[in-house]
Amino acid sequence: MPPGRRYAGRVTSTPAAHGDSSYAAAGVDTAAGDRAVELMKASVARTHGPEVLGGVGGFAGLFDVSALLGYRRPLLATSTDGVGTKIALALAVDKHDTIGQDLVAMVVDDIVVVGAKPLFMTDYIATGKVHPERIATLVAGVARACEATGTALVGGETAEHPGLMAPDDYDIAGAAVGVVEADAVLGPDRVQHGDVVVAIASSGLHSNGFSLVRHILDGRGLSYTDHAQELGGIVGEVLLEPTRLYTAPLLTVIDALPGAIHALSHVTGGGIAANLARVLPKGAWVELDRSTWSPQPVFRTLAEWGGLSLGDTEATWNLGVGFFAVVAQDAASSVTRALEAAGLPAWVAGRVSTASHDLAGFEQGAKGVDGGAVRLVGSFAD
C-alpha cells in the first residue's frame, strides 16, 4: 500500500533507517511518495479556507463545521465516483492535467443535484509505480477544480501496487461531502405538471462512455496519438476535453432564484433519458425535443466512425447535454438567462406532464429509482 499521503493528513512512508530498503526491493518507492506530496502541497493549500484545520502529518483531515449551527436542519450529502476508462487516453498521450477536474465533476456535481453546497473532498490514487510529477499533476487538477467549486481538498492517499498494476498504470477515485437545508432539498417531490425542462450544455464527452469510444477507435484502427482531421487534432488530446463543472453556477442560480429550480439531473452513466427519469416523480413523463440542440462534432464524428446513429448512443453519451434543470413554468426564462450569465449555455428542451399517456418507448426509472418516464423525440438540429 505505501507510499501514502495524507496531504491534509499524513505521509505514511517508512524512513530508510527503519527498513525502507526491503520495501524498495519489493518494488515500493517511499521516497517517490514523499516527493509527490511536496510537489502537490501548494495546490492543495489553495483549496483551504479557515474551516480546514491542521496540515500535513495527521491521520485525518479536519474540517470545522461550526457554520452548520446556523442551519435549521442541516442534511449532509455525500457522493463518490471515479473517472473510468478515460484514464486510458491520458496514459496514451501522457497528459494528466485534466483528469483531476473530471474526478471532481463526477463527484461534486452529483452533490449539487440535491441542492447541496460541497464542503470538502478526499481522493485516492492507486498506481503501479509512483511517478511524483505525474501524481502531483493529477492532484493539482483535483485542487483546481475543488477551488472552482468551492470545495476544500482535505485529504488523500496514493497507494503503490507493484505486481498488481503495471508501473505506468493508475486509477483515481474520490468522495465529497456537502450540506443542504432539509426543506431546500431538490428532487422529484418538488416536480409538478407543467414544469419546464431546461437542458444545460456539456463540454463534450465528459467522463462516460469511453469504453464505446475505445471500441470505435479500435475498429477504425486509430491510435490515441494519431491526428484526426475530423476531430481537429490529436485523437487522445481532443477526447480528453475535461468535464464541465456545474456546481458553482448552479448554486448561484439556486440562491438568486429561490424556489425556481425543482430538480436537477447530472447526465452521466446511463445517458440522457435515464438520468432525467431518475429525478421525476412516478407518473410524470417528459418528451425531450432533439431539435432544440445540436450535438457537438465529436459525437457526430465518433458515431459515424462506429457506424452508429446519434440515437444509438443516447443511452451512453450525453450528446451535448451535461445537466438538466426542472424548473417552475413561470421561472423558465429567468433560470435560462441566469444560467447563461453564469457561463452555462442553456435552453428549454421539454415539459413535464402527469397526464395519462401511453409510455411505450419511454425510459422509465433507472439505477433502482422508480421514477418518471422520458423519451427523446424529433431529430437533432444540424
TrEMBL record:
Q: Which UniProt keywords apply?
A: ATP-binding, Cytoplasm, Ligase, Nucleotide-binding, Purine biosynthesis
Is DNA-binding set as a keyword in this record?
no
What's the main place this protein lives? cytoplasm
Q: What class of enzyme is it?
A: ligase
Q: Which cellular compartments is it found in?
A: Cytoplasm
InterPro entries referenced in this protein's UniProt entry, alphabetically = PurM-like_C_dom, PurM-like_C_sf, PurM-like_N, PurM-like_N_sf, PurM_cligase
Query: What family is it from?
Result: Belongs to the AIR synthase family.
* PANTHER family for this protein: TRIFUNCTIONAL PURINE BIOSYNTHETIC PROTEIN ADENOSINE-3, TRIFUNCTIONAL PURINE BIOSYNTHETIC PROTEIN ADENOSINE-3-RELATED
Q: Which HAMAP family match?
A: AIRS
NCBIfam families in alphabetical order: purM
Name it.
Phosphoribosylformylglycinamidine cyclo-ligase
- Organism equals Protaetiibacter larvae
